[in-house]
Design a protein that fits this description.
Blueprint (H helix, E strand, L loop, with lengths): L1 H14 L17 E5 L2 H11 L3 E5 L14 H8 L3 E4 L6 H8 L6 E4 L16 H18 L4 H25 L7 E5 L5 H7 L2 E4 L11 H13 L4 E5 L5 H10 L2 E5 L7 H5 L4 H16 L4
Parallel strand pairs: 1-2, 1-3, 3-4, 5-6, 5-7, 7-8
């Protein structure tokens, strides 16, 4: 049966129906663990913690929209052959919940945000305290699969938590003294937790996903807000078409800076192994520039 599954996966790959699978599913290289992750949040956390002990597959292609992703049959094959399938939550990735239900009997399914308190905002990784809980959940799952590496995995988790502490301190210090506190995001409402924790006001063009259309009335309201409050910088998402932000900028004279949701990533950043910490540092830098904060 395993041979048949691998053949099916090969055919699907050749036909271009499988999503982003950098490494062949179901094949262990040098005894490594095979881990399938839903998207980039799960991928980058797992990669940071597992290091050289796992071959990690990301189902969501770079630049893809995670809220409305539609899995292919090849995705199901990949998950059934994996040792671990890690996704964020049923709310953020309802498609991943369906995949998890069809996982193989030997596939351990891990919901990374399972220990995070429930909320209407699914972007739980925008709170560093939540990321600690998610990282611990992933680390515990890896230890189940690799008990002989428990000490190293615990050390990787400790180092990651140290990076989170330093990042939190940088945000507190870096955003403590700014000329402005209003962030206008020409994208969806992904940064609400970040705004609440570090004390800035957030206005987003869309809700917590891209499912809703950007109405003309909503867009006009955002433009009026920018003009009325003399906002000099607007922010946009790294993987969205820049045309909408450019239109708003042309209407208001505001400059454009990117904010990184982490839920999706560009192909270039993926190839360069850009991490969660890297992207959140970029967000801090751009928030400081846009809000004119003192260093």
């Amino acid at each position: 049966m395993k041979k048949i599954g691998i053949i099916v996966l090969f055919v699907l790959l050749a036909a271009g129906t499988v999503c982003f699978l950098p490494k062949p599913a179901g094949q262990k290289t040098g005894g490594k663990l095979t881990v399938v992750t839903s998207g980039y949040v799960a991928y980058t956390l797992t990669r940071q913690l597992a290091g050289e002990f796992a071959d990690i597959i990301m189902l969501l292609p770079p630049n893809a929209e995670p809220h409305s992703f539609e899995p292919t049959p090849g995705v199901l094959v990949a998950v059934r052959q994996a040792d671990l399938f890690i996704y964020i939550s049923d709310t953020f990735e309802p498609w991943a919940k369906d995949i998890a239900a069809g996982a193989g009997k030997n596939t351990q399914v891990v919901k990374a945000a399972g220990a995070v308190p429930a909320s209407a905002d699914p972007h739980v990784w925008m709170d560093f305290d939540n990321v600690r809980l998610m990282a611990k959940t992933v680390e515990e799952a890896l230890v189940v699969q690799l008990p002989e590496q428990a000490q190293t995995l615990a050390q990787n988790l400790a180092e990651f938590n140290e990076q989170l502490t330093a990042l939190d301190d940088s945000y507190k210090k870096g955003l403590s003294s700014c000329q402005g506190r209003e962030v206008v995001h020409i994208g969806h409402l992904a940064f609400g937790r970040l705004a609440q924790k570090y004390g800035f006001t957030l206005t987003a063009l869309a809700g917590t996903s891209h499912d809703g259309e950007h109405s003309v009335r909503r867009l006009a309201g955002v433009v009026d807000l920018i003009k009325h409050h003399h906002i000099q910088t607007i922010f946009t998402e790294e993987t969205l078409s820049p045309r909408l932000a450019q239109t708003v900028a042309a209407e208001t004279g505001a400059q454009i800076l990117p904010l990184y949701t982490v839920e999706s990533i560009s192909k270039q950043d993926f190839d360069n192994h850009i991490t969660y910490i890297d992207l959140m540092k970029r967000n801090l830098d751009n928030l400081q520039r846009g809000l004119k904060c003192q260093a």
